[in-house]
# Entry
Amino acid sequence: MGVLDVEGVFLTKNGVPILNGLSLEVWEGHVHAVVGPNGAGKSTAASVIMGLAGYRDFEGDVLLGGESIKDLSVTERGRRGLTLAWQEPARFEGLSVSDFIGATLDGENREVIRESLDMVGLEPDDYIDRAVDKSLSGGERKRIELASILAMNPRVVVMDEPDSGIDVAALEHIFDNLDTLKERNTTVLLITHSPTVLRRAEHAFLMCCGRVVDKGSVERIAPYFEQQCIPCDHKNRPEKDAAGT
Amino acid sequence: MPDLIEQLYESIGQNPHEIRDDESIARIEVHKNEVLGVHLVPGLEVDAEETEDGLDAAITVTRGTRIEKPVQVCFGMMPERGLQKIVLDIRIEDEASAAIIAHCTFPFAREITHTMDAEIRVGHGAEYAYFERHVHGPEGGVRIVPKTRVTVEQGGRFSTEFELIKGRVGTIDLELEATCKAHSVMDVKARIGGSGDDRINLNEIGRLIGEGARGALTSHIAVRDAARAEILNTLTASAPFARGHVDCKEIVQDQAVAKAVPVVEVNHPKAHVTHEAAIGSVDTKQLETLMSRGLDEDAAAALIIQGMLN
# Structure
């Protein structure tokens, strides 16, 4: 049993099956990757794990530390140390970086906020009083979101497409922080279709058609993904699979 | 027992000595219809007359004067009931520059009416920034009726910001009409949070009549409980290269009702006006982001709304 387990999840949206018996076993303190082509159901899996609106009605179960969290709110999951870094982080008009990162910190937290910004490569003096709004680039918001996660110090973090919309230098900071999270014994689940991100993980799940079709070491999964999945135009068509077409 | 001036400043969370002991800061303090204090700086002229229910004042910043520190104005009433009528005639003469920070405080209001009738002229190349912050009590017994007419002459810059996010609104009927001549700029903002049975009515009109005039009308409103808000923003551009934007955002919770009517009118082929209006509940993605860090839903919503109104 892992620190996070997804057990046989089936989920349908608008009559279309998205997850078809998805199972994941995520080990504590390790960096895992869920990899697969567009439409494989990777982001849906992240939403189910976090219990987001519209992703709570499914068959199967999600366990954190061996306990079902299926009926827990997003807040309760967050309080148990599970959190999510969105593919495209939300904008918060008027909300300062300081208030955003410090939202769940107790007491005097200015130093924690500054340290977190520093860790993601953003100069605290330049950012701490700025708003988390459209004046920031997508990459900046992504790094600020990561700073908020570092400040939270979660038990498990799901990172949905961490390289989406950011430049090479920023990606290096994110990779550096994967190491930091690992040093803190934080479990990381990367959701990605990028071979570059995949290769930062220790273990990989290959998803297709809403389920895991292979899993193992990154050394084994990555070449298969790059050679077979990236050129493949197969999309999430489980109804055709079921019919053998 | 602190005197009235101290009570006024304390009600807005300010230490009166920080402002009153600084000779470089101009200030005007008014309680009901009584001028409690006036301190002027060179180039600032105030001719104030106490009336039966308030104050009739002419404020002039003389030609070419640049007042470095914002003029501090405090209009307030400490009693629970009463009427305060403020009439202002504000002249920012050519090439002059000034900012006013006005605090309107009614911390114990149960049945107070505060009206303001302001005529503002921003001269050629002049700059005038007016920030008005209201501090109300928890009872909602205030009716606020500010009516402002503004003329911004060629090359002038006018900005105003109305903030009412502390205490209950009560009822507000805000009207503003601004006319902008060539190459002038106006920036009008309102940020108001309503609850209980508060009523918020904004009617803001901007007329960009001069070539290259620019203007923006921005309203950020949050209503909850049984509060109601109706925002009517009208922006007209009738000269070449006039540019305008109307932005109305309203967050609605509980049984509250919000309505926004952005009206944009363009009367010249080389003018351009845009608008955006968004009314709805707190954004789900914003909520879930904060909840995934462990905040409960109510605290997350409050933080998001506080941000929007900041």
Remarks:
- Chain A is about 35% helix and 30% strand.
- The mean pLDDT of chain A is 91.
- The two ends of chain A are 35 Å apart (CA to CA).
